[in-house]
Structure formats: structure tokens, C-alpha cells
Amino acid sequence: MEALGCVWTMKHAFYLNMGGVWLQPKDSQPFPNNAAQLSYLVADGYMAIPSLTEKEMWDKSKADRFAKIMACGQIGWLALQCVGRAVQHLPITPLELATVGFAIPSLATFALWFEKPADIDTPTKLPVSDTTAQLLERLSPRAYRWWQTPLDFIDTVNSPSFTSEIILKTEHWPGRSHFVGPATRVRNDIFGLKYSKLDQLAVGLVWIGYAGVHLSAWNFEFPTVTELLVWRISSLVMAGSMVVFWITGNRKSYLLLSYIWPSKKDHMEKISSERAKISTAQIVLGAVTTLSYLAARIILIVQVFLAFRKAPRGIFVTVEWTEFLPHV
């Protein structure tokens, strides 16, 4: 948008990409659009740059910065409690450890989404003078077929989502009417196909932290030796699966899923050509890795609660914080 003479903030980008702005065609159903699509419309001269102030967007948010900081504070306090218990050699339950594990991606999400408005129920609607059919006829001949919104042809980087693939696959099932959108929201299962090295590194560090927390229970006290062994194996399988996911990247993950649940017609020629490069061994590896990860995660979640049937008495002992204070 800067190239178009408009300086927008990260808050504007979040607001658009989460479906905060909808186009309202004449005599047609409104539909959400993202930042790339709106930029295309402005650059094409189809519409002027909309006036969106930060105050207007933030007023629609269900959570302000204070609420996000408080949530981070609660997560930090739990992690600090676990560190204090470890230092004072007090037992830590698998449930506490698993919660800390989930806290790592949660903190990363809070940091990345600090400027993101939350749960926008009433979007900003931009009226246009054309109907949806006239809009598509004017913009591009490539818009003959769309899956989520009529402007899918603009954003070919982030367009396909797993649920939209399912919709395409089932649209001709008996008893199901032909799919006619547009989507009522921006889907949150979109497989982005363009990531920088820094993005991949950040995701890798979060995954290492998440898997490392579970591996730190290597010598925890479980009700039986067998359960301890199962925890160790499941933690290793989960960590190994994450390494495979990180090496192959999100791009190949989507391409592998497109083999498992292929659509009748490819979204993009680029995906079709990339998919042809994947070998049978990669398909098998992706399927085995995904199933192994899911199995390991389910086993760990079950063990978190089974461990309470014979928990050590020390879990009821609180941390003596005064022991960390220097004495004169």
C-alpha cells in the first residue's frame, strides 16, 4: 500500500487478512477480502483507498493490549512456578508440564498478534457500484471459477485452504447442492506457500521448545515403569515428527495433503507442477510422519491425566519463594 501512497500499519494488515473488510457489490452477496486483494483493487483503479483509522479498527476488537498482557503474565507465572519447583526438587505433574508446553506457542502467538484486533463480529463494508458478475468481468478473465471469494484469482499465494479442498471434493456428492459461495469468513486453515528463512527458523525454535518441554519429563515419576517408557517413546516420536515437518516445510505439507484429498480441478498451475515433483517415497514419509505425530500427541494427552491416579504427595507442596531471597 505504500507504493500507492498510503501508509498502513501492521494493525491494518491484520484487520484485512482476518476478514475485517468486506466488499458489498450491487445487488449481490457481500464477501470478505484480504490485504493483497484490496491492494489489487486500488492499484487497478477500481476503487479508492478506504479510510480506516486504527481507533476504528481497535474499537471492534474484543480484547485490548491489557488483556493480552494479563494472559501472558498468567502463562509466565505458571512457567515460573515450574522452574521454582524444579530448583527446590519438588515434583511437577505431567499436566503442569504439558500446559507449559502449550504456553510456548501461545506466547509466540501473542507476540506476533500483539497488534491484531480480536474477534471482529461486524466488519467494515465497502460498497461498489457493480454486481459480482460485473466486477469479475471487469477485473480478470481468470475469475471464471472461485472457491472462497470471487477475488481468489488475485491472492494465489495464500489461496487454498484444507476445508475449501473438502468443499470442492464433496460438491458433486448425491444430495449435495452445487457449491455457491462466497465464504462468510476468511478461513483460518489456509496453507501459505511462501515463507522466508527467518519464518522457518522462528517456527523451528517454537517447535524445539514445545518438544523439549515434553522431553524434560524423561525421569519424571509415573505410576508404572511402562508408562514412563511410553512417555519417553511418544515424546521422541513427536520431536522427530516435528523435525521432519520443519525440514520438508509447510509447502510440501500442503502438496502432500493435496494428494491425500485432491480437488477435481487444481487451484493453481504452480501447485500442479510442484506436486509432480514429489516422489512416492515423500508421500509415504508424509503420511507416516503425520500419523505418528497424531498418535504420539494423543498418547501424551491421555497419559497427562492417567498420571493423577498415583501422583506423588509432593505435588501439594508449594514453592517457598523466600528461599530465593538473599539473607543478611
Structural account:
The chain is mainly α and 328 residues long. It is built from 11 helices and 3 strands, in the order αββααααβαααααα. The protein has helices spanning 10-17, 35-43, 54-59, 65-87, 94-112, 132-139, 162-170, 197-215, 225-260, 269-275, 280-306; strands at 21-24, 31-32, 124-127. The protein has a 3-stranded mixed β-sheet with strand order 2-1-3, with no helix packed on it. The longest helix has 36 residues, at 225-260.
Notable traits:
328 residues, mainly alpha, 3 strands
Strand-helix topology:
Blueprint: H1 10-17, E1 21-24, E2 31-32, H2 35-43, H3 54-59, H4 65-87, H5 94-112, E3 124-127, H6 132-139, H7 162-170, H8 197-215, H9 225-260, H10 269-275, H11 280-306
Parallel strand pairs: 1-3
Antiparallel strand pairs: 1-2
Shape: elongated
In round numbers, the mean pLDDT is: 76
Q: What is the chains' assembly state?
A: single chain
Largest sheet: 3 strands, mixed
Give the % helix. Answer: 40-55%
Termini gap: 61 Å
Summarize this structure briefly.
This protein is mainly alpha-helical and 328 residues long. It is 52% helix and 3% strand.
